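Q: Sequence in, structure out?
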Amino acid sequence: MNKEGLYRDLSTVKQQIGLAKQFLESLNSVKFDRKNVLSWFKKLCGYLTDIILTILEIRSILENHVLNKKTMLLYLHQINTTLSLYINTFVAECEIGEALNEVRIFTTKKLSSCLDGIEDVLIKGISTYPENVGNFILWMDTALEKMSEIDHLKEKEKCLKAFSDAKILFEEVLSHAMSIAQVSMSEDYKIIRGSSQSVLEGLESLSNEISKENPNSAMVKLFAETCSNKLCALERKVNVAVLKICLSTFAKYTDDLENIHKFCFNTENKSKPRDLDNLVMEFDLHVDRIMQIGLFAISCSTNMATCIKIRSCLASLEALESELVPAFNAVLLDYCKQNCNLASILKNHWLNEAVLLKRLICEIIDPLAFCQIVHEENKYLVHTLSLDVKANKSKIDRSVTEQVIRNSIVLDDFLKLITYEEDNIIHIKENISFLQKIIREVKAASDVFLPQEQPELNFKVYKRCKILLNGIYSLCKNFLVENSENSFSKEESLGNEQPVVTGNGFLDHIINRGKQILQDRSILYRSNKIEAFDLRSTTLSKMNALKEKNKSIPLSKLVHLRKISFVQSPTRNQISCELQITDIVNELRNMSLTFEKC
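A: Exactly. Output:
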């Protein structure tokens, strides 16, 4: 495309965006009856379709700017998500016979923000796609590359410079690890913290050796390899921690939000605001965990289309952070039809995006790794159950069997969402069918036998839990790849060793950095509380310098240590930008037709 044509198209899309934003303002005057909102929605879809088709014509200007392309696709996905929220709002308005102005304002503001973002990308070349936020794996790779350079350097000054650069990168890895630890289970928090301290001790040993007047090159090499090995060990612990967060979060995926809904829609709770605060704290932690899982999944996948969809879901949840709880609080304070509908629509929008996010994440998680985590967690629970049975107790803790069932149901749901290799699909489906049957059997036995509080009946429940555990073990074996370095046995643990944790000032700094990373997390709609952070900008400049060297990454010696258990990365066909935009246009048109049929 020539410059004149490009300039003309850019002017056109800018004008189209201006017209669309101007049209959005007209929603305030649109009545809530079906005919009016349908007419308005059709016109809006027409404006947006024109914008997207023009973008399709000038997509070539994005080809050499990966982040701009990703940002554009993210905004386009968000436009479709916002349109679906419009539809749900208008349908609800027609049912109750009045306009839901607060939902309209929220949705219009969100769509207007997307249009502004598209204009920034096309006209100003500004990308808001946060490439490195939550990207633990990227920081890992870069830190290991820099540490490996120390092996090949003979001059002391160069060695000190390489170590200084590596230390900054290692600190960033440790900070990201601690940001994940903040939302992990308490035991995993201790493990990651202890492993981080071990890495710091390795760095200190290397620093002491390099700083000597005549450093021993063999010792420098040994300490450098030790640092890399310890960092790989930390990576494995973080992978396991994220998998456990997945299991815990998926087991009660919608419970925390449903609890807030039940509490606020009960008029008897109007005088109990502190109880709501506790529920909100639980929900906030739950959302933080979902965000960390999503960001970690993005960092582990090479499929751009899937990653953008995940980030779009995360952006939708982020946009609701400032709206959802206040909407429920409004119901608690003033139980009226307007407030109830506002809370219900926002809640359903959150659930839709969260369910889609879960499905996308499940496409990335390695089935073997997830089966191993479920097996390990259930093995511990069944062992706890066996102690009560062996003690011949008449009453045992029913929550143990309930947790076994919940974990197993999460695994069953996960296995329904993923795709399988053709040569192994028959055996896997047989084992999944067996798993489903034994889950029902354990649940029925728990419901019937445990209330009777008889030791012999408790033993029957325990035996069924053991059979369930064996069924999960069989599934693990199905996912083992021939000649793979992964191995698994019934007695094997994924490595919950617990390093001794002692006081360390620099470790406290790392932990605080991890908290800050978690606090500053931003997907699309929320601005970072700290706009500039010297360490991060310094690290990024050093990373770019590394890329310019075009050095190969000598990580072959570390492959045996870096068993990335969270994901598998099979080569997948990347969907082109053109096809993704075309799909978005088709989805937009389908939404318009669907709303017409509502």
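The longest helix spans residues 217-251.
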